[in-house]
Design brief:
Elements: H1 9-12, H2 17-20, H3 22-30, E1 36-37, H4 53-64, H5 77-88, E2 99-102, H6 104-116, E3 122-127, H7 132-135, E4 143-150, E5 156-157, H8 159-165, E6 170-176, H9 188-199, E7 205-209, E8 233-238, E9 251-256, H10 263-275, H11 281-292, H12 296-318, E10 322-324, E11 332-337, H13 340-344, H14 346-357, E12 359-360, E13 362-363, E14 375-379, H15 384-399
Parallel strand pairs: 1-12, 3-4, 3-6, 6-7, 7-8
Antiparallel strand pairs: 2-9, 4-5, 8-9, 10-11, 11-14, 13-14
Length: 400
């Protein structure tokens, strides 16, 4: 056999814990085992949380009228206008030209990192966090440094830790709100304090990942851009979570640049967007229908999600060896393993659970080796009977 072609360091070093754990699960399924998958935040994988029918209808109508060719590189004009109105309703002056439509938030991140980062730059992101915040910056010679979310205080932001880690190399300061994987929602005072820290560093821009904003269980969500008077904020959002259409791959970034300091970076972003052509045209029409159409369905989806989450919290509190802070939004639980032996190697615990009881969750260290270890993340979206069976297996596994 010939020598294999060498893989690049940037590709071989990427880890994505949420999907990496699927590989052994698929092997078990091929052997005939039925796996309860609680690893990925895809509401369409579970009963009772469908994509709204009026959005699907508009998607289909776009296909039927042949609106499935190349669209504008920055997004359909109608969709950019609707997104800007949505952001204005959250308290800041977002113009349609401030909005760029992307292949999900993941592509938005890749574009932002490509435009902002050079060798030696730093992204300061919460720990724990969504894995691409750690994986992608290194592609551009940059690094991610984590600031601490306080696990014993409902995962509040450790503002002192941010202050201690800020320096001239920090080009991007990340706020994931509501947070994935913890489900915590930052208070207005926390966000304002974070903005005040960033304001001391003229080259720092805030990324506000607000993809779960409509899944807050009370009226405690506040957009970061609405509080910032001087610091640039790039808001990320899209159709996948709040509109329950993750496979459509439509996201956006909305730029709040009060002092016009990002004009050169925006030129770079626009060049990248033009070079990759456009996001899916018919899916954009479907998202447009979601933004402009009825919202009563979302109240039902949110209520059902909260009911399932409360059931999970109840069962966790009944099981020796587990504990969990109560989330304020999203649809995840970041569960603490209280046994010190399990804490030391949460990935081994997750894989052992998978092989012995056929329940798939994600190890907390996959979201942050430093601040997420000793935990696992699970979604609370399946119907209660499925969740009950999963917890029965987890309880049996812990007792053994």
């Amino acid at each position: 056999m010939s020598e294999p072609v060498k893989v690049s360091n940037r590709a071989s070093s990427i880890e994505y814990a949420i999907r990496d754990v699927v590989v052994p699960a698929i092997e078990l399924e091929e052997q005939g085992h039925e796996i309860i998958r609680l690893n990925i935040g895809d509401p369409l994988a579970y009963d009772g949380l469908p994509t709204p029918i009026h959005m699907i209808d508009e998607y289909k109508k776009a296909l039927e009228r042949q609106d499935n060719g190349y669209g504008p590189s920055y997004g359909l004009n109608e969709l950019r206008k609707a997104i800007s109105k949505s952001e204005i309703s959250k308290g800041w002056n977002c113009k349609p030209d401030d909005v760029y439509v992307t292949h999900g938030v993941t592509e938005a991140l890749q574009v932002i990192f490509a435009a902002f980062l050079e060798e030696g730059d730093t992204v300061l992101a919460p720990g724990p966090h969504y894995p691409p915040y750690m994986a992608y910056p290194q592609m551009y010679g940059a690094k991610t440094v984590e600031y601490r979310l306080k696990s014993s205080e409902e995962w509040k932001i450790d503002l002192d830790d941010i202050s201690n880690k800020m320096n001239d190399s920090v080009k991007l300061l990340v706020l994931i709100n509501p947070n994935n994987p913890t489900g915590n929602i930052a208070s207005s005072s926390e966000i304002q304090d974070l903005i005040n820290i960033a304001e001391k560093w003229p080259n720092c821009t805030i990324i506000a990942d607000e993809i779960y904003d409509g899944l807050a269980f009370s009226d405690n969500f506040i957009s970061a851009a609405s509080l910032s008077k001087n610091v640039p904020v790039i808001t990320l959002n899209g159709v996948s979570k709040v509109y329950f259409a993750p496979g459509w791959r439509i996201g956006y970034m909305a730029w709040h640049d009060p002092n016009h300091t990002l004009r050169l970076v925006r030129d770079g972003v626009e060049r990248i967007l033009r070079s990759r052509l456009c996001a899916s045209t018919p899916a954009q029409y479907g998202y447009l229908a979601g933004l402009c159409g009825p919202k009563d369905w979302l109240d039902k989806h949110r209520k059902l999600t909260e009911e399932r989450m409360n059931f999970c919290l109840k069962r966790i509190n009944e099981i020796d060896g587990l504990s969990c802070e109560s989330p304020k939004g999203a649809f995840y639980l970041f569960v603490r393993l209280t046994n010190p032996e399990h804490q030391r190697n949460d990935k081994k615990w997750v894989l052992d659970l998978l092989h012995q009881e056929h329940v798939l969750v994600v190890h907390g260290s996959g979201f942050s080796p430093e601040f997420g270890s000793g935990h696992f993340r699970m979604v609370c979206l399946p119907p209660v009977p499925v969740l009950e069976e999963a917890f029965r297996r987890i309880e049996r596994f812990l007792s053994s």
